[in-house]
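Hi again,

Forgot to attach this to my earlier email, sorry! This is the prediction with magnesium ion bound. I've pasted everything inline since the attachment limit keeps bouncing my files.
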Amino acid sequence: MDNYKSGFIAVMGRPNVGKSTLLNSLLHQKIAAVSPKPQTTRFQQFGILTLDRGQLIFVDTAGLHHPHHTLGEYMNEGAKSALKDADMGLLIVDGSDIPPRDEDRLILDILGEIEPTPAMVIAMNKIDKLTSQQVKEHANAYQGLIPDAELIPISATRGDHLDQLTDTLIQYLPEGPPLFPEDQVTDLFERDIAADMIRAAAMIHLKHEVPHAIAVRIDEFKERNDHGAYISATLFVERESQKAIVIGKNGSMIKRIGITARKEIEEMSGRKVYLKLRVKVRKNWRNDENTLNLLGFKK
Ligand SMILES: Nc1nc2c(ncn2[C@@H]2O[C@H](COP(=O)(O)OP(=O)(O)OP(=O)(O)O)[C@@H](O)[C@H]2O)c(=O)[nH]1
Ligand SMILES: [Mg+2]
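Structure tokens for the complex follow:
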């Protein structure tokens, strides 16, 4: 194990750039909830990649954004403390977007507050949507965010340059033995991942602001031997009107959310799942510290 490297890499960036997708791609396994809408990830989650040269522990974080709720503040704080605690940072940017946006610059405020400044690598994601000329132009523009950081153009969905990315990251990690067993891919329990996947399914099917007003609590997670797992969960919303939308006409919406979530959870856990969902109103929970704490958010 001479020269073996291991350490934590905080995966930072604004919402929807593909941080969680990258984790899933690197691990060849669906461990993190992904959706086409911003602010899918709320809690930090480790994605543990064990190679023969080193162990890279990716810390997926909530996307950095301008918060409108106490919840948003907690999410940004969580991302910041992940970078503080990590050995280095990986900034993901969306190469298919016109670079860089205001929210991409939030990382600079955070870097300004951490002493000593952590080593950073930039991954410019979604290059599958770009021509090679655009890759060059956008890379130049994003490089300006952190001039000292190495920038690697990648596609998390198509798999472009992911080996180059891990090779680069490993160089910055300290020498040391693996910190997790080699067959462990994440630190979260299945029930936490399942909760995230239910919320991501709601984000896929619901429009606009409603999905962001949802929190999911797993009430029961029971093994049924050969029959797989039985999961019952509550979706909390902030208002009666949102409850009606989430349930849908004759329960059609909650049914669709359930079908998508069940498929994702089955894929993640490799067994059959019976999923029961219900919806409850908890007024203005995103600004209510007690409920936030109850749901596992801590400042
Ligand atoms: N075309 C393309 N789409 C991608 C790529 N990577 C991610 N996406 C898509 O981008 C969307 C957002 O992906 P996520 O992984 O949820 O993004 P995130 O950065 O974790 O977002 P938050 O958790 O909200 O901060 C999803 O629809 C992904 O399928 C990529 O390499 N190419
Ligand atoms: Mg995410």
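The chain has nine helices and nine strands. The radius of gyration is 19 Å.

That should be everything now.

G.
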